[in-house]
Amino acid sequence: MLSFALNISPFIGNLIATALTFVYVFGLVALLNVCVTKFGLPQDISRKITHIGAGSIIGFLPLYSDLHWSKYLNVTIFVVWIFLLIQKGLFAKPDDEAVNIMTRTGDKRELLKGPLYFVIVGTICGTFLYKTFPGIVAMATLGWGDGVAPIIGTYYGRLKYKVLSNKSLEGSLSMFVFAFAASVFFVWLIIPSQLNILRILLLAFIAAIVEGCSPKEIDNILIPIAVIVAANFV
Known about the structure:
single chain, mainly alpha, globular
């Protein structure tokens, strides 16, 4: 944690950690906007890179001291984006960077769906499930598993199937693999004493099933709910 490493108060250390999350997120948004507008990065790719990057914010949690209420400042970046996404989803101009990198079609109203659901989930996991096994696995699975699966499914998926929306076996397999790998990494990083490979394997499998059956947009809600509920039974 920063307060111990820098020999400063837990409050100041947590403030610095929070500032770093802002630098990280807004830096990522700016970089992806350049990649989309200047280098032609497809919006569906930039959207999912943003998705992965947002899920990876939990990587800053080890910097927070648990000895002070300010540990909950870890969700400040998510709360800010709740308001930004609502504002941008209603009033943004077509060339707004959030519209450029977080939507599939350039329709600002998409920001009020999947992206907004994501930051709401991040806020819940960073408060009520702060540094808990279910919260960390839910965010890792949502960020990396659900972030990579559509890319693999869209560009490499050949074995198609449909439950409530079109999916592919390749995408579902990548959901499982990346949900598992990311969950192992972030649990090891944040709460290593709770690392349980078999438990994570089962949760990744459940998440892949839920993702494969979920309608578009609301999977950002259904996947973390499934992981959090299942984590209490496996």
